[in-house]
Amino acid sequence: MHSSDPFSTLDNPAWWALTGVQQQFAIGTQQVKRYQRGILPFAALETATTENLVTLSDLFEPGEIFYLIGELPPLPAGMQLLKELPCVQMVLQQPIALPDNVVPVTPLNATYSADMLHLINKVQPGYYEKDTWRLGNYAGIWQQEQLVAIAGERMRLHQLTEISAICTDPAYTGRKYAQYLIAHLCNNNLQTGNTPFLHVVHTNERAIRLYEYLGFTTRRTIPFWQLVTHPSPQ
Q: What value, to the nearest 5°, has the Cα angle with vertex 179 and ends 159 and 214?
């Protein structure tokens, strides 16, 4: 990337993840990529052209819903825009200082995949699939043998890690569990030379205020496009 912006890859984050650190999860061509089915419903174009969208549509089943981030070219026949989600893209460049955590933070792995899927789909459905946890490190907080809060790493680029799946069971909100999980993941990344970033829907002012309180700064607003492929009329 020939740019003075050290975070310029975040203008097309899924592309730089799928062609770099996370290429083992990618399928596609030199111009278009998607995450493997069951990993993440996200796809990416090297350049935003209708021609690349036509190529991309071959990677999806008819009726399959997926997301593109950033610039969206005119859609070809056989592809429909369901909605646009303007997201605030935020980065963190210094460690998060929090009081000592009184609840243990547990690393989550394959053993807990069903618990993770259940909690995230209860709180924040649509972006997490059964094997999304394979993309990075996930951490959780348990109460009474139930997973009640979670955060993890989704897209990972060169020296950049997206913090995602930040969810707390509604019965356990107000206990700062999300703050402790975010701090745990972000501080571990900063120690290894990776800058944490995240995306939050621009209308979620409460979450944006929390992230600003923890030290995140806004880089830009970037659209997430929810798209669906459908069979072209014969």
A: 65
